[in-house]
User: Which sequence fits this backbone?
């Protein structure tokens, strides 16, 4: 049985795809793992359809979670249209739906070839975008995106646009081998785009 939704620390996490346009040096899925600290088996042999995912949600007491988080073993925004459909369906059925967050690499507009940020309004409460570095060179070295430096530009542009439609937009970096100056540079960059920086502690593989 594949894991579409799973619980972690009071939140409900959602796994809709393995696909990703990056190959981050630290990514569990790029390093041969099929699970994470959150759940054992996250590798999807097939991507669940939207109806299948909805049925999985509806087996749960959704109002009891502090948050619903679309993350994934891959990049969840490959499934942007399905995420938004699911949120609409859930909002119709659950009067007190918890806040909805997407953890993303910020490449949705690049991957999908259109600006999706307007569609997030009223549906997505929080975006957490991986920043991963304070310069394009560092970013490309760490995340190894299919589109090279264009992915850095796309991620920044996505953040700027999303900050106008989503109430809370965070950019995250992992605090590993970072100097205070680099963290300051990341914070300045995030704030210039209308986001705020969240520094996450490093969890060894
Ligand atoms: S963006 Fe996320 S899913 Fe994609 S390779 Fe990096 S860590 Fe893995």
Assistant:
């Amino acid at each position: 049985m594949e894991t579409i939704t799973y619980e972690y620390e009071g939140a409900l996490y959602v796994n809709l795809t393995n696909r990703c346009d990056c190959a981050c040096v630290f990514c569990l899925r790029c390093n041969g793992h099929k699970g994470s600290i959150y759940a054992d088996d996250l590798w999807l042999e097939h991507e669940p359809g939207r109806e299948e995912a909805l049925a999985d949600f509806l087996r749960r007491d959704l109002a009891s979670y502090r948050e619903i988080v679309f993350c994934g073993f891959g990049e969840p925004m490959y499934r942007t249209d399905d995420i938004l459909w699911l949120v609409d369906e859930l909002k119709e059925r659950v009067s007190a739906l918890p806040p909805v967050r997407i953890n993303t690499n910020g490449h949705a507009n690049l991957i999908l070839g259109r600006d999706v940020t307007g569609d997030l309004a009223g549906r997505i409460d929080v975006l957490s975008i991986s920043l991963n570095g304070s310069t394009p060179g560092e970013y490309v070295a760490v995340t190894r995106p299919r589109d090279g430096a264009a992915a850095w530009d796309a991620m920044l542009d996505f953040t700027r646009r999303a900050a106008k439609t989503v109430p809370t937009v965070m950019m995250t970096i992992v605090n590993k081998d970072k100097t205070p100056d680099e963290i300051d540079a990341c914070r300045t960059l995030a704030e210039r785009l209308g986001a705020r920086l969240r520094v996450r502690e490093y969890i060894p593989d």
